[in-house]
């Protein structure tokens, strides 16, 4: 869909913007007020040709869930800015963007609490077997009091081990430590200065050596970005080092986990259960054993999927794009200036 520009007020140079995933109407209106906008989702076969044509002219891209790789960038000779409606930047060819001086923006911060809510919901659901037991009621199999074979495991007071302790990891830690009395251990390459960055977690969360975290955590929650350093990081060695009966939750990116190793840890290793919002291939292929494994609770990548938060992400991404196209420093550029 090409959106005709309103009559120009002559105050600014209109640029070509390609929206590659749907934007809420109010955010689309902010763009069309100042730029020429094409909306085309390359995942839809009937919009692919329009996407390709608009890409060749685009100064700015905004969207998510589609890889903007080196081949796509090579077909966008005028590109100045890519604004992702996501905090994760693993869909973007970072080296090629940097080499061409194309600004990359993303949406940190506005989704932290919502994603942490989702991760904690998954942690609760797996430990108390909520989906499985709800299914039992729905299917008319609740004919007598459930027995020990269907009991769950406690959450409060148990130890949480976080792989990744950034914005979202810390939001998960707050829920665990302040709401559920859980001691928190975290693994990251650099310890976080809790006194300045998360004073409410002082004395409640510690930076622990990975083997210690894995041996002691009742819940291991991965909240890692996908990068060269994290791809396949959660592998057979890590699963083997986890405490017997541990529950594994992944709210970061699927490819940080070796899924075959996860399955082995469920069937032959220490894992009691797993809760997964993200997968190496999304949507999850029908043939994936993770889809139907009885002790896996799979979700369709819904970490930030509330009306409020998805709108806040779209608004921040739109602001970022408008700022960058105006030659200003965007509110949330990747990598951040201090990195
Ligand atoms: N399921 C969903 O819907 C969502 C998933 N996400 C995913 O969550 C990720 C995290 O988001 P956010 O918290 O904002 O990101 P941050 O950048 O704030 O945090 C990332 C954390 O991971 C750590 N980390 C990075 N690389 C490594 C490594 N090699 N080894 C150990 N720790 C590492 C960082 O610490 P250090 O650099 O010191 O190692 C930091 O603690 C996103 O990148 C995205 O992929 C985000 C939103 C929604
Ligand atoms: O996975 C979602 C994101 O914002 O990143």
UniProtKB/TrEMBL annotation:
Coiled-coil ranges (or none): none
InterPro entries on file: D-isomer_2-hydroxyacid_DH, D-isomer_2_OHA_DH_cat_dom, D-isomer_DH_NAD-bd, NAD(P)-bd_dom_sf
Position of the signal peptide: none
Pfam families: 2-Hacid_dh, 2-Hacid_dh_C
Chain ranges of the D-isomer specific 2-hydroxyacid dehydrogenase NAD-binding domain: 120-303
Keywords: Oxidoreductase
Domain D-isomer specific 2-hydroxyacid dehydrogenase catalytic: 17-332
PANTHER family documented for this protein: 2-HYDROXYACID DEHYDROGENASE-RELATED, GLYOXYLATE_HYDROXYPYRUVATE REDUCTASE B
Family: Belongs to the D-isomer specific 2-hydroxyacid dehydrogenase family.
Protein name: D-glycerate dehydrogenase
Native source organism of the sequence: Acidovorax benzenivorans
């Amino acid at each position: 869909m090409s959106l005709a520009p309103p009559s120009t007020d002559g105050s600014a140079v209109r640029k070509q913007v390609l929206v590659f995933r749907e934007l809420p109407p109010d955010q689309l209106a902010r763009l069309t007020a100042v730029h020429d906008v094409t909306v085309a989702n390359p995942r839809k076969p009937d919009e692919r040709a329009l996407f390709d044509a608009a890409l060749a002219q685009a100064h700015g891209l905004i969207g998510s869930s589609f890889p903007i790789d080196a081949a796509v960038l090579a077909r966008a000779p005028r590109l100045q800015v890519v604004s992702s409606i996501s905090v994760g930047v693993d869909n973007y060819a970072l080296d090629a963007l940097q080499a061409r001086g194309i600004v990359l923006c993303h949406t940190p911060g506005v989704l932290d609490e919502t994603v942490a809510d989702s991760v904690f919901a998954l942690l609760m659901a797996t430990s108390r077997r909520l989906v499985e037991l709800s299914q039992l009621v729905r299917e008319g199999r609740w004919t007598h009091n459930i027995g020990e074979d269907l009991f769950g495991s406690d959450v409060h007071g148990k130890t949480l081990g976080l792989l990744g302790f950034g914005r979202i990891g810390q939001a998960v830690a707050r829920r665990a430590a302040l709401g559920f009395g859980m001691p928190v251990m975290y693994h990251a390459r650099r310890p976080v200065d809790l006194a300045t960055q998360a004073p409410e977690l002082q004395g409640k969360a510690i930076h622990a050596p990975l083997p210690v975290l894995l041996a002691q955590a009742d819940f291991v929650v991965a909240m890692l970005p996908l990068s060269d350093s994290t791809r396949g990081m959660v592998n057979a060695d890590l699963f083997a080092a986890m405490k017997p009966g541990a529950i594994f939750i992944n709210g970061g990116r699927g490819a940080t986990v070796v899924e075959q190793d996860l399955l082995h840890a469920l069937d032959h290793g220490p894992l009691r259960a797993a809760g997964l919002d993200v997968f190496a291939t999304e949507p999850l292929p029908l043939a994936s054993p993770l889809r139907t494994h009885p002790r896996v609770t799979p979700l369709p990548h819904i970490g930030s999927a509330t009306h409020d938060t998805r709108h806040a992400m779209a608004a921040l991404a739109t602001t970022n794009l408008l700022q960058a196209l105006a030659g200003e420093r965007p509110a949330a550029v990747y990598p951040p200036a201090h990195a």
